[in-house]
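S., here's the first fold you wanted:
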Amino acid sequence: MASFRAFWNGPMGPKTTHFWGPVANWGFVVAGLADMNKPPEMISGNMTGAMCIYSALFMRFAWMVQPRNYLLFACHASNETVQLYQFSRWARAEGPLSAKKEEASSQ
């Protein structure tokens, strides 16, 4: 019971934004995972790139803030992984790595 009370009243506990911010940000990860079933033509390269930059910046923030926010770091590391995968799907289908553009330029 004492360890639960320490967590509940601690600087990273559910009474703080250090807890609820990362919990809410897991929605980005869930949305990215759900988008894996969609065709790559529906992916926005600009938005996915922005999400990659956003997650990278907030991973650094989570690491540098005191007390260190491991929950936020894990959330943004997961989102970075998902978004980089989505960005690679977009790049192969629509972006600079697409076969469509190579075929069009050779004709």
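And the second, which I think is the more interesting of the pair:
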Amino acid sequence: MLQVLRMVVSTYQAASGAGAAAMEELELQTREVLEGKRPTCNIFKQQYAFNLFSHNAPVLPNGYNEEEMKLVKETRKIWNDKDVKVTATCIRVPVMRAHAESVNLQFASPLDENEARDILKKAPGVVVIDDRASNRFPTPLEVSNKDDVAVGRIRQDESQDGNHGLDIFVCGDQIRKGAALNAVQIAEMLL
């Protein structure tokens, strides 16, 4: 069994993660901006349409926001490993539905990207979309309203020696499955 030593995850969170009112505001702002009007900013205190920004959760004294620390704590709890190194950056993106995550994993033992791809292809609830020749990888649009989580951009981390690192890109409809749980469960499948 592989041990994860460190996980670096950046989440790209859709409007739906903040609720129906946020989705409505994104739609309204999009129309307003396209019409040359000043956007309505009730849910988010800044323009959301055609923009992205740090997650709107309160920022803590350590510089992380509450959403990022929730991801760190949930990962350690789900893996039952209080010592695993986890860092997160959570970003709001102007997408209606389905979150995306860029995940970098560091393992104690080597894991070849082809072996990782095979493990993920066999995992229940996961679909691998990893077509380098066609530059086709997961997108929030294609996983919206679906139960499966899509994984792609599966590749060795060139900054780590000996196949100890892996980069993956994950998309899932967080209304059906939470963002933190997505990253953790995908990494668990590789263990």
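Why I say that: The first helix runs from residue 20 to 34. The chain has a mean pLDDT of 91.

Talk tomorrow,
H.
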